[in-house]
Amino acid sequence: MSHAGFRFTSLRNLYFIIVCMMLTAITSSAQTPTPSRPKSSVPNRAPSAAAAASPMFKAIWEPMNYPDDLVFQDVYFANDKVGWVSGKGEGGFIFHTADGGANWDVQVGDPHSNNAEINYLRFLDATHGWAVQGSQLIRTTDGKTWQTIGPFVPNFPLAQYRFLSVQDGFEVGGYYSGSTIFSTHDGGRSWKPVFACGTTLQVNGLTQKTSCFLRDMFFASMKVGYAVGGGFNDAWAVIAKTVDGGATWKVIFASTDVDTASAVFFTDENNGVVRLRDHRVLITADGGQTWSGATGAAEATLKFADPQVGWSCIVQGNPSCSYTVDGGKSWTTRTIGFPEDIQSYSMPRRDLIYAVGPHGMIYRYHVVPADYMAKGMLDAPLMPTYGGPIVPQLQQMQTQVTALQAQISAAAASGSPASGASAGGGSAQNISTQSSAGAPLGNQAATASGGFSQDASAASGTPQDPNATAGGFVQDTSTAPTSQFVQSCCASQVQDLQTSFNTVAQQVPNFSGQFRNLNLLFVGLNMLSDMMNRAKQMRDSMVALKKAPDAQTALAALSALLTNVQSTSQAITTQFSNLSAAPASGSPGGVIGNQVAGAPAVPDSSATPGAAPAAAPAAAPAASGQPTSSNTAGSQAGSQASSTAGTAAGSVVNKLKKKLPF
C-alpha cells in the first residue's frame, strides 16, 4: 500500500472513531434522566378576583392655584367647603371660599396695598376666628367681617397662640432667654402672665436651674393643655402641662437625653404626640406621665384630622410630608413634588387637605376614582377609609331592609303572609359593598402607591352583651313583643335585622371616639350626639316593625328605618362636615341643645358629598304600590325618637362638656 493510501485510510478511521464517540455521548445524555420539579400538591388556580382587580380609588394632590403672584402664608378650612387663606402680595390680605377653593373673595386687606401681611389663622368654628396682622390681633365673629382687637404683649415675640372660646385664649411669647405664657379672658384685648417657663436639669451630674424657650402649645380640652420647647440652641426638651384651664402650669418633663421639642398635638387629654427638632417623635397615652418613641420621623408641624390620621409637613423647606394612620405610633415620610415650598396646610378631614405656598400655590389632597386625571396632579398616599366596621353593618342593614320590603310587598300583593323563607339579601351575611350614593365606604381593597387598606371585617370583635347600653340609649330591641303578623311572615329575617342593628348601636361610641373631628372640636362633639340620635331613631323603627299588625304598618316602619340608615351612611361619607358648629355666645350649649333636640338634618343622598343637607322628611315614602296613608304608623314610631333621643344624647354630652374646649 502506498504512503498516500495509508494516510487516507488512517484519517478515515480517525473520523469514524470521533463520530462514534460523539454518538455515544449523545445517546448517553439522552438516556440520563433530567431532574424534574416535584409536582405541586396544590392545583393551579386562576388569580383571585381581589388580586386581579384594579384599584377603584386613588389619592392625589391636585392644583387649584390662584391666578396672581401672591404668597399664601396660612390656610384654614372649617369643613370641605368653607376656608380662608392669608398672606401678602405687596400688602396683607385674607381670602375666603365657600365652595372648596373654586372661588375666592377678599375679606380683609388688599394684596396690592401697603398693608401689613396677615398670618396665624386660628378658628373655633366657621364663624369665630382670629389672625395676626403685623403686631395686631384681628378677629371675626361672623366668618365674614374682621375687626382689630389690639396688640399682643409688647417685647415678647409671638411663638404661638390658641383660643378656647370667644373670650378665653393663651399666648406663648419670649426670646431665647426664656418664654412666658399669657392669658386673656376678654377676647384678646388684655393679657396677663400666668407662667414663666423654668426647670431644673441634670448636666454632667450637676443640677442646673434654667429658663426654657417654648415653641408650641395645644389644648386637648377646656381644662388640659400642653406647651413644649426646651433649649433655644441647646439640645434638651421640656413639656409643661395645665389641668385647670391655663391658670397654672407645671413642667412634667425635662431631659437632656432628647432634642428640643418643636411641636405638640393631643387627640384627647391623655393621648398625645410631640415632635422633636431632630424629627423624632415621642408619644404618651397617660397624659404625659410616661413617654416612648414612635417609629419613623415627623417632618415639622403636627396636625390631625381625627384621632387616627395625622400629617406633619415641612413648612418653608423641602416639600415633604410625614403621615400616621395609627394615632402617631408610626410615621411614614414621602417627598412631594410641589412646585414651591409649603407655607401652611389644613386638613378638615382625613381625605381632604389643603396646602398653600408662594406664587398663588394651592394644592388639594383628595380621593378620586382610579382613572381620574388632572393636569399637574401629584401622586399621594391613600388614607384608610372613614367609618370603620360600622359602615359594612349599615350596608348590611340596608340590604336586609330592602329584602324585607320586597318580601312583605309580595305577600301583601298575593293576599297572604309570606312563608318566612329568606328572600335574597335577608341573610345576616349578605353585605353590600357600595353605599347608596356610590361612595367608597367599606374596606378599601385597592390602594394607590404608598397607601393603606382598612379591613373592616377584622374589627367586629367579640359580640357584646345585647342588653348593654352605650351612651345612654338602649341598644337591644329583643324585649319588644313581636306581632302575630311578623311571626307568620318574616320572623327570622326581622331577627337578622335586629342583630345587625344591635351591632351598629354597640359600635356608636367607638365610632365617635375613633373618628371624631379634631379640626373643629365643636363638630366632634356634635358627631356623637348626631350618631346617638340616629341610633335611637333606628331602634324605634325596629320596635315599630316588630309590633306591626299588618303589612302596611310594617312597610311604613321599614321605610322609616331605610331612610335613617341611608342618611347615616351618607353622613359618614361626608364625615359630618355639615353639622352646625357655631356657638353664638362663646358657649356651645345652645348648639348642642339644638342638635340633640329633635331629628337631625338628613343629607340628600343624591347630593354630592359636602353639600348642604336637606331638611329631615316628616315621613319616608312607603314601598312602591302602597298608599301614602300607610306611613302614619312609621311616622309616629320615628317621631317618638325625638324627645327620648334628646334626653339620652344630652346626658352623654353633658358628661363630655368638661373635657372639651368650650
Describe the structure using short key phrases:
disordered C terminus, single chain, Neuraminidase, alpha+beta
Q: What does this entry look like structurally?
A:
With 662 residues, this protein is of the alpha+beta class. Among the domains are: 152-293, 6 Propeller (Neuraminidase), CATH 2.120.10.10; 392-430 and 471-657, no CATH class. Helix content is 26%, strand content 26%. The strands form nine sheets. A five-stranded antiparallel β-sheet has the order 28-29-30-1-31, with no helix packed on it. Strand 11 and strand 12 (178-184) form a beta hairpin. Helix 6 (521-547) packs antiparallel against helix 9.
Brief characterization of the structure:
This protein is an alpha+beta fold. 26% of the residues lie in helices and 26% in strands.
